[in-house]
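S1.2 Input.
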Amino acid sequence: MRRCRTCCAPGVIIALATILIVAAPTLSRAQSAEPPAPPPPSPTLLERWVDLQTAMFQVRYHDVESSAGVRTSNQAQDSITLHARFNLDPERRLSIGAVVGTGNGFISSWNNTGIGTGDMAKALYLKQLYFAVKPIKGVEGSYGGIGIVRGESTEVTSYDNDGYLLGERVTVKRPHDLYFDDISFTNAYLGSTTKSSFFSRTQHFTDRNYRHLLFAKKLRPWIGVSGDYTWVSDAIRTVGTVRAAATVKTEPLHVVDLVRWEQYRRDGPQSAFGFAAHGEKTVAKRVTVGGGFANIDDNYGGLNADRFQRGKRLYQTGSIKLTRELAVNIYLTEAMHNDVPISIHRRYDVVLAYNALANLQRAGLFR
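S1.3 Output.
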């Protein structure tokens, strides 16, 4: 099987780094010349103690066919995702965070309804539970069952949005002092990928096999870049993966509104290079269409987005915003020119998504 030449990976990463270094003085002067931002509005009474970040309810129909021509899924599913922080002091420096959701597994957030293939499932899991502290402005430490940070990379070339870790993270957001908008370091355990429940994974609290260092920067309001390095260890070796990504909002071009490039380069005995390119355009007031191409190597490991997994594939996306809270999302993909079996050769999803947080914001309970 022919592979993409890995020599292009360092070149793009070096180019991104060069942009950061060259642009730094100009950007620093521009930042110092800008008037100070107005103070944020005062939190509502409920927000003083509860920070609701996600409240999403979804139903979908999806159809999946493997490269062997076998229809592996033809079903209706539902999904619930709730992410909130509970503040322990009025200044919101101490908090407890939790993520509750459907779907059992590292790459799963859906339960089968029993309509179509698969048995009905009704399970709801506490997937993340962590303690967070903010000792000074722009610095936060968290410990417990935490999520994964990606910068401008997405779950296509990184880890699935539903993934979880056990460990600690330090995040620094002090761009006026350190130039970067976001710097984070994570030391954690990555594993138990078939157990979504936080409590079923607590025996690994003292284990560490995952380290991650991330730098992210908004070079302009319309362009963001990030670079990160991940170390993952097993009983034999430690494998490192470097990732880089850039997102550009291109509205003045009137061709597409957004373009994203993301890539990774993994070292070790199964070294490989992969990438994804994405673009999207708002074609009407409430209608957005997009698409792209992804190339994920055969030995990636299966922990990236469940819609993509490994292989070369074209994909298309669409979103119709019916109301502020309600939207219909569409996803279609087809793998192409792969020399190994592909579990997701053809797939399409139709999703009805209800954002309850938007409704609560409309009611004035949250900003």
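S1.4 Remarks. The helical segments are 8-33, 175-178, 356-362.
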